[in-house]
Amino acid sequence: MKKTNLSSEISHLSSPISAWLFDVYPSERGVTLWFIGQNGARLRCFRTFTPSFFLHLNNSDAKRAEVLADRCPVPVSLVATTRTEIYSGDSIDVLQVFVKDPMRFREVVWYFEKFFPHFAFFNSDVSVEQQFLYETQLFLLHSATMRLVAKANFFRGISMTTVKRRNMNCRRFPLCSFATATISCRRSTRSFCN
Prior knowledge:
Elements: H1 6-11, E1 17-27, E2 30-37, E3 42-48, E4 52-55, H2 59-71, E5 76-84, E6 91-99, H3 105-113, E7 121-122, H4 128-136, E8 143-149, E9 159-165, E10 182-185
Parallel strand pairs: 3-10
Antiparallel strand pairs: 1-2, 1-8, 2-3, 4-6, 4-7, 5-6, 8-9
């Protein structure tokens, strides 16, 4: 089995890299993404992401939710917003609950489920990975071209600046263990995927 040397890949990160999105999973402050390059190199990237769910509550319950948020064992923040209910098409006022540690998303949902009925919850059953893929309009095994810009400490200071979708060419991925290069990505002001 051929092991891919990532040092040459990392040294040329200012040029575009074509890769397939292979895996996404929650990490402490966002998500971890694994990409497999056209040349077979494995790249692990971190991206900040704050998952959320919605609570449709009356005014007194909304005040109670604010108190409960302060007591929640996982850091959360609440934002009042309006969303469209999918079945009726009506606009409803909801509290959006942002979970600061994506790895503990389910724990926060369970915490609030102790205090409010099941019909008050929206999107609480949508996984962190699904939320991220929906918001960025990415999907697994999708080919993308990325431009990563190196900073002073390139193992922790790589940021993703652009991503362009491309048609996926069928390719067999060799069975081998992932090389581990840690590449941090910061959220750009533009959409993650154009």
